[in-house]
Design goal:
By secondary structure, the protein is mostly helical. The chain has 2 domains: 4-82, Orthogonal Bundle (434 Repressor (Amino-terminal Domain)), CATH 1.10.260; 93-146. It has helices spanning 4-15, 19-41, 45-52, 56-64, 73-82, 99-141. Helix 3 crosses helix 4. It is extended. The termini are far apart.
Length: 146
């Protein structure tokens, strides 16, 4: 009998093959960005509806329901205009399977190297301070000419 996790993984992988999965993902990403902008500007859903000339119920449905048939490019543009934002679409090559793990490993290596760099900088700084304190000590030990 297959584990629950492996069954879920298979279902998830199958779902990723359908355009509806990617459309919903894009819709959610967009709405998260609009929500963040609204929060930063103190815009309520009611104010957003007023700016767009639609009902507050419509805005609620856009944010809370899967309104795929009503969520068009026009909806994207109108929501963006209402919060004084612009839309940028970036298309990137699809990652190879397992590339997320490789990406995470590369970041980990980079962070490790930065941590080593920070340690090196701290050691160099400590050595500089040590040399400076010795040079001050040396000056205090020299006899003062009368």
């Amino acid at each position: 009998m297959a584990k629950v996790g492996s069954r879920f993984k298979k279902i998830f992988e199958e779902a990723q093959q359908h355009p509806a999965y990617w459309m919903e993902d894009l819709r959610l990403q967009f709405l998260e960005e609009i929500s963040a902008i609204m929060e930063s500007q103190g815009i309520t859903q009611k104010e957003l509806a007023d700016r767009m000339g639609v009902s507050e119920a419509y805005i609620s449905r856009v944010f809370n329901d899967n309104v795929e048939k009503n969520f068009t490019l026009n909806t994207l543009v109108e929501l963006s205009k209402a919060v004084n934002a612009e839309i940028k679409i970036i298309v990137t090559p699809k990652k190879a399977k397992g590339s997320d793990l490789l990406y995470q490993q590369e970041w980990f290596k980079l962070l490790q190297s930065l941590d080593c760099l920070n340690e090196y900088e701290n050691v160099a700084h400590d050595e500089t301070l040590s040399q400076e304190s010795h040079s001050h000590e040396d000056k205090s030990l020299k006899p003062v000419a009368a």
